[in-house]
Design goal:
By secondary structure, this protein is mainly alpha-helical. The protein contains 5 helices and no strands. The mean pLDDT is 81. InterPro entries: Cyt_c_oxidase_assmbl_Pet191.
Length: 71
Amino acid sequence: MSKSCKGLAMELVKCLSETDCVKVEKRSFKECCGEKSPLISSECVGLRETYFNCKRGQVDMRARIRGNKGY
């Protein structure tokens, strides 16, 4: 279960590395991930929300019994 969000995390990093926030402004992934600016594409925002829900599912007791929805 600890690796069920790994695929999403890798895609999120890949998506963020292609944005202007990282390329042009030379900011860290952590700073850019928290942004809601137009520098981040809607695809990255969607991946961020999906990753958040995946991580939240890991601590949800109902999801722990059923298993986290893998990627």
